[in-house]
Amino acid sequence: MTSDFAIPNLESNSTAPSLESISALSDLESNPTPVQESNAPTEENFNLTLLDDSSELPLKETTVNKNNQVKFKTEGGKLLLILPTESQLPASELNWSEIWQQIQLRLMAGDRLRIPNAIVHLMAGDRLLDTRQLQELAETLSKVQLQLKSVSTSRRQTAIAAVSAGYSVEQLERESSLSITSNTTAAPLSDALYLEMTVRSGVEIRHPGTVIILGDLNPGGIVVADGDILVWGRLRGVAHAGATGNRECLIMAVQMEPTQLRIADSVARSPEKSPMQFLPEVAYVTPEGIRITRAPDFSRIQISRMNQEPLSEE
């Protein structure tokens, strides 16, 4: 708290202070400015300013840009941990150490905003994180009874590291200032996301392109893709292809036992009785809804359709 009153330095000045100075000091001690207390938690409680160990006042010269700071925020009933983007704070081991210190300080100062066993959703943006950094985050949150549940990122490497560690992943489109598309034209799909792993129960993967899994999709696991979904293994969870409305997308699996299949706005469930033998199958949309057929038969259907289409005149 600052004051407009000037307090004389008695040690550095041997001359006795004036009566005006003594009067001002007396008034300040007898009539202190009241402090308003508030128990309502706000986002600003987390925005602590990091200062260098050797730095002192004035604060204006040592205050860190707020855009470069870690933030905790509640949105839609979710507790979000928002990291600064790489455009705000370039990726380096030194900058990650700074981010790490900020997270620890905010957790130490945010007791009033913490709920035991609360779920944390990490908003990593375009920041590249590896398995070690995600593990450090999870362990630190666990020490204060917070649980890292999901990771939202625009980096494929971060998405792969997160889903490999067992977290739900939402992969976002990476913003580009060079290409601005009109709202009337469909945005191109992102590069395919390749995952060599088993998608376990409770893990959700979202990707704005095709998802290819070299492994199984277990019951309770969810994969949502704007493009196709290819499972080189057993598909026993929920698969949603063409999530933005593309009815031409496909879902393919070596062994098709889905809890639910969705292509665009069409929905299908697996039959109650499992087949005696399994062959690679393809799910696709017809005017009657989603159909599932063997992969060789689907190839013949596609070839037949191509042969029936009239050739364009040159």
From TrEMBL:
Keyword field: Cell cycle, Cell division, Septation
SUPFAM superfamilies with a match to the protein in the record: Cell-division inhibitor MinC, C-terminal domain
One GO biological process term: cell morphogenesis
Domain (Septum formation inhibitor MinC C-terminal) ranges: 196-290
Pfam family, one: MinC_C
Top-level taxon in the UniProt lineage: Bacteria
Record field: compositional bias (Polar residues): 10-44
Keyword Ribonucleoprotein applies: no
Region of interest: Disordered: 1-44
Annotated function: Cell division inhibitor that blocks the formation of polar Z ring septums. Rapidly oscillates between the poles of the cell to destabilize FtsZ filaments that have formed before they mature into polar Z rings. Prevents FtsZ polymerization.
HAMAP family given in the database record: MinC
Annotated NCBIfam families: PRK00513.2-4
Family: Belongs to the MinC family.
SUBUNIT field: Interacts with MinD and FtsZ.
Protein known as: Probable septum site-determining protein MinC
Organism: Cyanomargarita calcarea GSE-NOS-MK-12-04C
